[in-house]
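Hi support team,

I've been running sequence recovery on a batch of backbones for a student project. Most finish fine, but this one hangs at about 90% for roughly twenty minutes before it completes. I'm not sure whether the input is malformed or the queue is just slow. I've pasted the structure tokens below so you can try to reproduce it. Let me know if you need the job ID as well.

Thanks,
M.K.
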């Protein structure tokens, strides 16, 4: 049997959770809850893989719960937000999915996928104006830095397809 202790809250982590002021101070220092709780990148990858398995098994509410856990531990990982968005989308919770996809865009502005998913949510909700605004935002991000140039080109095509849509 393998050691699974890295997947549980340590005594130190549980003690820290009883001191919200210390947790908040950690946030102010730029530490995620993942770092403060001592979860390794490997453990986070394992958690992510398990959450992905829930999607593959079409257990979308359980998947959403798993991705909420992941985004709470580290909100700066866009894949966690995309997973949450996908679970909400798959349950027909378009507004919740849209929020998650917007967070994914904020966590990693150069990925086109969350913009595409967010636009799809808007269009399914009948909000063409917001869909265009999201595409325009992606274009602006892509226009600002050379490393995001590909995002700009894809967002430009996206915005045109919404208009012609």
């Amino acid at each position: 049997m393998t050691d699974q202790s890295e997947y549980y809250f340590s005594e130190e982590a549980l003690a820290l959770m009883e001191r919200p002021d210390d947790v908040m101070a950690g946030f102010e220092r730029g530490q995620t809850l993942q770092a403060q709780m001592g979860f390794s990148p490997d453990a986070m990858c394992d958690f992510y893989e398990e959450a992905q398995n829930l999607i593959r098994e079409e257990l979308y509410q359980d998947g959403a719960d798993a991705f909420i856990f992941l985004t709470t531990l580290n909100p700066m990982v866009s894949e966690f937000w995309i997973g949450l968005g996908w679970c909400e989308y798959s349950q027909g919770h378009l507004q919740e999915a849209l929020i998650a996809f917007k967070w994914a865009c904020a966590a990693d502005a150069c990925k086109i996928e969350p913009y595409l998913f967010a636009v799809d949510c808007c269009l399914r909700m009948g909000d063409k104006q917001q869909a265009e605004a999201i595409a325009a935002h992606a274009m602006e991000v892509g226009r600002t830095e050379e490393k995001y140039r590909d995002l700009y080109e894809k967002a430009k095509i996206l915005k045109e397809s919404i208009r012609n849509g």
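--
Follow-up from support: It reproduced on our side and the slowdown came from queue contention, not your input. The chain is about 75% helix and 0% strand. No action needed from you.
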